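Thread amino acids onto this structure.
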């Protein structure tokens, strides 16, 4: 909600009382925020990826929002996600199947996501067997 006095947003004056919505997906795939933004490269978040991804604006990735309107369950969600993904990746390698190559695109809506199946093949990591 824009304050009563109004605000400048992206160089445009927005009157007070206006509800402003930012679509996260657009921010996440913007090339001004991330190099190779439309590619799935989870290594970009690792500390040793600074050479290639050091200029990425990682603060643009805020899926739970920030401030007083942020998701109150985000701390638990981060912990549970970390636990599950760590266990999964410790025991398996994942390979994205061709039919899921453009899984995130072609959505009829970006605010209410239709989630088609994400097709992957789990297989034991040969180093942990």
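Threaded sequence (129 positions):
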């Amino acid at each position: 909600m824009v304050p009563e006095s109004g605000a400048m947003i992206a160089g445009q004056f927005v009157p007070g009382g206006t509800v402003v919505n930012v679509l996260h997906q657009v921010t996440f795939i913007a090339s001004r925020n991330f190099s190779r933004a439309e590619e799935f490269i989870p290594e970009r978040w690792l500390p040793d990826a600074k050479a290639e991804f050091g200029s990425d604006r990682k603060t643009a990735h805020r899926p739970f929002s920030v401030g007083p309107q942020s998701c109150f369950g985000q701390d638990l969600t981060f912990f549970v996600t970390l636990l599950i993904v760590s266990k999964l990746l410790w025991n398996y390698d994942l390979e994205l199947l061709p039919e899921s190559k453009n899984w995130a695109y072609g959505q009829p809506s970006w605010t209410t996501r239709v989630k088609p199946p994400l097709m992957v093949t789990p297989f034991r990591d040969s180093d942990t067997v």
